Amino acid sequence: MREELTGVIPGWETVIGLEVHAELATATKLFSGAPNRFGGEPNTNVDPVSLGLPGSLPVLNEQAVELAIRVGLALNCRVQPSVFARKNYFYPDMPKDFQISQYDLPINEEGWLELPDGRRIGIERAHLEEDTGKSTHVGGGGRIHEAGYSLVDYNRAGVPLIEIVGAPDLRSPEDARAYVGELRSILVAIGASDGKMEEGSMRVDCNVSVRPIGQAEFGTRCEIKNINSLRSLGRAITYEAQRQVDLLASGEAVEQQTRHWDEDEGRTHKLRSKEEAFDYRYFPEPDLVPVDPSEEWITEIRDALPMLPRERRHRLAEVANVETASVVLTVERGMDDLAFEAIAAGGDAGRVIVHVENNLADGAGALDAESFATLVAMEVRGDLTATQAKTVLAALVAEGGDPAEVAASMGFEAMDTEELEALVERLIDEYAEDWAAFIAGDDKERKKKSGFFVGQVMKATNGQADGRIVNEIMSRLALD
Amino acid sequence: MTLSTAQGIASAVRSGERTAREVLEDYLAAVDGREHEVHAFNLVLADEARVAADAVDSAIDAGTNPGPLAGVPVALKDNLCTRGVPTTCGSKILDGWRPPYDATVVGRLAAAGAVVVGKTNLDEFAMGSSTENSAFGVTRNPLDPAKVPGGSSGGSAAAVAAGFVPVSLGSDTGGSIRQPAALCGVVGVKPTYGAVSRYGLVAFASSLDQIGPFSLTVADSALMLEVIGGHDPRDSTSIPGRTPDLVAELDRGIDGMRIGIIEELSGDGLEGIAGDVRARLGEAGLALEAAGATVETTSVPSTVYGLSAYYVIAPAEASSNLARYDGVRFGLRIDAPNAGEMNTATRTAGFGDEVKRRIMLGTYALSAGYYDAYYGKSQKVRTLIVRDFARAYEEFDLLVSPTAPTTAFAIGEKATDPMTMYLNDVCTIPSNLAGHPAISVPFGVGDDGMPVGVQILAPATDEAKMFRAAAVLEAVAPEGHPLVGGGLP
Question: What SS3 state is found at B475?
Fold first, then answer.
């Protein structure tokens, strides 16, 4: 059976390297003053340069260089003097029939990114290049060669991209997703990109190879294109790794290919082999001069960088005394400051983190740090059960207010333990058979019956009882 | 100053002695008289020119100064973008395209009061040395219609020589201004790379292309360069700052200057430089000496490799620059069942043989496995040439050579042999590879009575000195061709 969920194939190791293209959040295009804006009527965000009209010349956008440097610094790269090059190939959505990119001298080289679990993934380079337009092929199944006609929208042509080439350090679909998620958080945090995969402002190409566990050399890789979501990324890797393992297991070789991910069919198709690969005839772009950012400028950009997700995770994890992996969502949602303040205001760190990670997916709304701390204190004291605390929290997010008053208005009052014990005893009489099963049963049965009794208690108390205390009472009574 | 120079016209128009409209009508009459024979223009813009001339006259009536080129008719090589006006590059592939913008130089000419009379013929995409490679027919040398005007800016050179305009603009990638200037007996200048904005010049080879003027006098070229030069933020390779004063420096002479005659390009080191051309160059050397300069022969060894390096670098860049003519967005489209076939059909029908030849050469030179041997090596030659020039300029202020190996040759004579044609640019190419300025000044005639040009080369941004020497040569030059500027009323 295929291990669809984990992508782990016994005896084999999957090796993954990702190339991520992110659109930089500049006001204008990489080489002209045309607006860099998503949407809009086709062919309205254009000018002679972004249409590649004869006689037009590119002029480098300083803001794009600044954002590229931010990315380089955030990914711990060496920021260096760089040169633009022309990548030549014919395609209707590329106005000049060449793309201005960076080739042998990229602006950023040799960095790393830390996954939430602490592993460092190598970054080979992060270079600047221009985006292409968008083709729509009408008829013939949407493919260019069979289409009845094609429409091209050049609004995206010339939009600045940063292409981030990761090292083949990833080993599973989960790794790949974690990497892209972390990269996205970094790009958003430093204001370099909006990171929206669904709008195409962040796109992922994926190199996959497999090798028997223990083998030092990499296997032959295939590059997968057309991955449009994190979900597709995981599925595509799982499919492709299995395809390669099946080939190798049946004695065939993996051919180096570029393959296309088909989301509907859930499989990859061959686009072209290594022999059919384009010869891009790179050469230095003669219309642009080398980019040589000064040390002062780089320092200025470095000093202005906000704290990155990695540092924020470490900072919060340390204060909360938890693993960095348990504060990933908190940081991703930008709620680490709230968590900090709530902890500083006396809130129990563990409970604060649990609430942010699990109960504040849609934002903190009207909740402030002080009330948050107060609420958590009530919960820890036992004034509120976990369930009640969650309900009050939701109300605080929606409306704000004083936690004690909100809890009172909902009728949540701490139940007396004696009162609760009396109730449990009554229920034991009422459901004697279940109680016997609880006492005599194995762990599984015991669990089941304790769930039953807690449910009955909740029913009788309109959910005001603390399930944890009910369990304690039952354990004690069972020993009597 | 005469009324056939830009300086003379501008001064007469500014003073009210003549109106811009009168000047224009005289030149349009000259065009009417001989254009059918010369074919300097792809497009004459008589109506638009009249509107522009009248605007200059109104400005003067209103008491404002229209600028240093007030009422001066100019012609533009048809690879310079003009808003709303067809810009063909001498190619069928741009059929029907009207640029939505003006080249920077076109805007600067207009702002200086110049009046654009038309777009001049050229070798397709500026690839050629005879203006025989245009999709719109051959341009003839107005001094002898059986002969070529040179190229690729043959139309702009012929227009000035024929007296259709006092000044014009061309582009020079490997000699495309200087060589036709020499063959037509007029002045032609390739400025320092970056001295003039390339924005709106349809690219042939981006690292070599420069726009420059043609004129009857050295002073007019200096004036034109002052107007069109200076920094342009739309061209990243544009040199910061404004153009240095050129006209004001012209009369300072060359007393004490050290001038070197480049051995490798002057006949002793290079076969194919005709005897009459060598003789004129020798006389020019003596004339410069007589004017107070020290003149001696010197070696710039790597210049002999310039031609070979050029015919790798220029086609390589061209193969990329000309990729955009694919039938998708503008110009010619030959319909076909799918996009790829449409590209091929369009380019097959739209480009002429010479353009195709260079696209193939350049594509090959950039291909995987050949890049280092061709493009890489050529760039090294380029570096050597820059180094050799730098060495020469430690000893000399200026260098001189012939502009072209021969006087104008017959139409058809070299058209079938690309290598012979390419040799025409052997003396001019090194300046493009180095990015240095050079000027061709008419200096007498050859045995056939056709003009000879002497080329003066200068270090980057040293145009002022170059123009001073050119002015000296102009002043002492032997009698030129009697018909130069002869179409004038």
Answer: helix
Q: Using CB atoms, pick whichever of A57, A96, A150 lies closest to residue B235.
A: A57
Answer whether A283 sits within 8 Å of B368, measured CB to CB: no
- What distance in Å separates the CA atoms of residue B243 and residue B461, rounded to the nearest whole number? 9
Buried b (16+ CB within 10 A) or exposed e, B197-208: bbbbbbbbbbbb
Whether the per-residue pLDDT at B255 is higher than 70: the answer is yes
The residue among B81, B88, B122, B236 with the most chain A CBs within 10 A of its CB, best to mutate, is: B236
- Stretches in chain A below the pLDDT threshold 70: 1-7, 140-145, 414-415
Asked whether B35 and B41 are in contact (CB, 8 A), the reply is yes
CA angle A43, A44, A48 (to 5 degrees): 80
Q: Identify which of A56, A86, A150 has the shortest CB distance to residue B320.
A: A86
Q: What is the pLDDT of residue B1?
A: 53
Report the C-alpha gap between A30 and A131 in whole angstroms. 9
Question: Is B201 in Cβ contact with A55 (below 8 Å)?
Answer: yes
Q: Specify the pLDDT at position A5.
A: 45
Answer whether B368 sits within 8 Å of A281, measured CB to CB. Answer: yes
CA distance, residue B437 to nearest chain A CA (Å): 19
Question: Do the chains contact at A289 and B99, CB–CB below 8 Å?
Answer: no
* pLDDT, tens digit (0-9, with 9 covering 90-100), for B108-167: 999 999 999 999 999 999 999 999 999 999 999 999 999 999 999 999 999 999 999 999
pTM of the model: 0.88
- B211 min Cα distance to partner chain A (Å): 12
Query: What pLDDT sits at residue A7?
Result: 56
Q: For residue B152, say if its preceding peptide bond is cis, omega within 30 degrees of 0.
A: yes
Q: Would you list the domain boundaries of chain A? A: 12-302, 307-409, 417-479
Averaged pLDDT score across all residues of chain B: 95
**Which residues, other chains included, contact A31 with Cβ-Cβ below 8 Å and sequence gap of 6+?**
A49, A50, A58, A59, A60, A61, A100, A130, A158
Q: Chain-wide mean pLDDT for chain A? A: 89
Q: Which two three-digit tokens encode residue B222?
A: 């200096």
- Which residues share a beta bridge with B144? B141
Gap from B394 CA to chain A (nearest CA, Å): 27
**R_g over Cα of chain B:** 21
pLDDT at B487 over 70: no
Q: Is the pLDDT of residue B338 over 80?
A: yes
Enumerate residues 6+ apart whose C-beta is below 8 A from B220. Answer: B5, B6, B7, B166, B167, B187, B213
- The DSSP bridge partners found for residue B120 are B41, B77
Say how far residue B196 (Cα) sits from the centre of its chain.
Answer: 12
Which of chain A's residues have a Cβ under 8 Å away from the Cβ of B199?
A: 55-57
Q: Which residues of B are catalytic?
A: 77, 152, 176
**pLDDT computed for residue B204 by the predictor:** 98
Residues 49-68 of A with CB under 8 A from B: 51-60
